[in-house]
Amino acid sequence: MSEQFQPLAKPRLSLSRFAFYFITLVALILIYLKFSEIQLIKEIFLRSNYLWLFSIIIVQVSSYYFLALNYRDVLRIKDMDIPIKELFPVTFVIQFLNQALPSAGFSGQAFFVQYLKKFGLPIAEGIGRAILELATLYMGFGTFFIISAVMIFNGNKLGDRPEVMFLIYGFSFLAVICIAVFFMLQKRGRGRIARWVINKLHAYFEKRNKKKIKNGEVSGNENLSNHTEHVAMIYQQFKDSLRIGVLDKHKKAFWLAYLWQNMIMLANIFTLYFLSFAVGYEISFVVAFITFTLTKFVAMVSFVPGALGVFEGGMTLILISFGVPTEPAFAMTLLLRAFTFWFPMPVGWILYRFYLHREELEHPYDDLPAVSNNQQ
């Protein structure tokens, strides 16, 4: 009895590998476009106090550790316990993807949802985890913004500037919307607004599919996509994840996750504060607190991908408003951007490549076509 084997077909370019090459290309283009800024950062870096810069590196690494702690406690709300040693490296990958593919954080979250599937977390629950993370992020930032507003009204020179008042009004408006949505989600079933949105989407997709069939673009037997169910699933995850009963049941994990978001904000504020010593123009901690918080808000509501340019311009102007000369204000801003944006990128890229390679080793035949063996 003899066996005949067909040789394995040449592996195709997998989707994950294509994504890796594409993201790498985008990152290189971004570096090329901002190369003059990177050169300027290098010059400022070489003129700065190395001891303070080393302290800043420690603070920034700790911010990633706090983010990993936030991930751990958010996952505990979903009844999952993943060790920090698994989550800490992933934080760099998520940050890298969010930087290379500016998409309001969706690119990094999409990777994390896929990554968590190996631990048995379904995609729907992964979306719920992302919702909880965003909730703790907004709560933490809101706390710092309110403290900043109190500092501003407490005799600070920025209190007389109309631009700052517009930021405070804008934050108040968004905060009211978020609180209203939270209480709306506590209602049983779908609220009137949610039902109206989902029904409108269903009608839109049905109309679009009928038009495609009528125009002969597709046959009537094809299963046409109707994304209404996806919208309904996301809405249900909002309800399931942010229910007061669920949060009360896991209140320790939830409030710890909120605490770690506060620690991340505090680490970035200390980074700006230490940078003032590094460039030789010391600012007070209050100035660093207000400056970073207001700049963070401007970056969060900006429509510019990655807030590139918006972050730098906003922070420089706020520092100048506090009486900081233009040159040290610009130097602090660029170095902060370097430590929070540019320097972690290569670390994230290396770890992303590592995770991709590990995935290929664990599932080596996922991208190969099926091969039949003929036995005679």
TrEMBL record:
Localisation: Cell membrane
Main subcellular localisation: membrane
A GO cellular component annotation in the UniProt record: plasma membrane
Membrane topology (UniProt): Multi-pass membrane protein
Keywords from the named record: Cell membrane, Membrane, Transmembrane, Transmembrane helix
Keyword Transmembrane helix on entry: yes
Taxonomic superkingdom: Bacteria
Annotated InterPro entries: L-PG_synthase/AglD
Annotated TM spans: 18-36, 48-67, 134-154, 166-185, 281-299, 306-324, 330-352
Nucleotide-binding listed as a keyword: no
Pfam families attached to this UniProt entry: LPG_synthase_TM
NCBIfam families: flippase-like domain (TIGR00374)
Protein name: TIGR00374 family protein
Organism encoding this protein: Candidatus Yanofskybacteria bacterium RIFCSPHIGHO2_01_FULL_44_17
